[in-house]
Structures are given as C-alpha cells and as structure tokens.
Amino acid sequence: MPRQHKNDNFIDKTFTVLADIILKILPTSKEEKKAFYYYRDGMSAQSEGEYAEALENYYEALILEEDPYDRSYILYNIGLIYSSNGEHTKALEYYHQALECNSKLPQALNNIAVIYHYQGLKAANNKNNHISKTMFDKAAEYWKQAIYLAPNNYIEAQNWLKTTNRLNNKSK
Prior knowledge:
Elements lengths: L9 H16 L4 H18 L3 H14 L3 H17 L3 H14 L4 H20 L3 H21 L5 H9 L9
C-alpha cells in the first residue's frame, strides 16, 4: 500500500515520518489507520500531478473512513482533482458532499464560487446575460459564506463582491 515517493522534499518526508509516529501512538482502529495511509498517498500523488493514482487512493480512503470531518477533506480533494481537470459538474458534486460532512469548510465554498464565477464569465462572453447573472449571483452567495467562515481570506472575492455591489445585497 505505501506509495513510492519520487520527488520527496524535506517537508514531505518530515510530514510522513511525523504522521507515521502519531498513527502508531494514537488509539485508532486498523481501518482508520489504513484510511489515513490511503489519504496521505492520495495527497502525495495529487501533489505530483498523478491524478488517477490520487483518485484511487482517495476512493479507498472513503471506503474505510467513517469520521465525517475526515471524509470532508477526502471529498474536497477529489473535488479539487475534478476541478483542475475541467470536470466542474463532478467537482461541484464532491464539494457539496464535503460540505454535507463538514459545513465549516470555507475552501469548498470558495471553490464552488470560483466555478460559478467562471461559468458566469463564459455565459457573459456568449452574451447570455440571464445565465451570467444567475451564475454570478450563485458565486456571490457561496463567497459570502466562505468569507463569513474565514474573514481574512478570499480578498479578491471580497473586492469582487464590493465592486459588483453584491457584498450586502442578496443578489444584484
């Protein structure tokens, strides 16, 4: 099961060693440990751009992981991969599943907003003003939620909300 690391740097190696030590001393079940190993290997593969391998590891981790908080991060990372591959519909599904497990995940809210904003820009470029407005309004609502949870983050989104007069309005 352990992944062969190709380009480990000092931080990656340190994280792996510390995680292994912590797993050995924490009172966790065999399944929880196995789920974490899959998750860790998925993160490693993802950071190297090995998305198929990362997805395999994340799906295995999902089978074993029961804790909703931990599952939310697995689902979020799956969403990241689909988003980076341009599969926005699938990415949205996984971001929403992550939020069902952990409603306080501002990065998932932000990424949902980014996808809706992108769709709004595409619609605007195609002169489809109704769809554009709808997508921008959806983006605004998700960014507001993300900013509420992490007020010091998402400065560009905060500026966009202000310049489009969506910060305090339900929608524009």
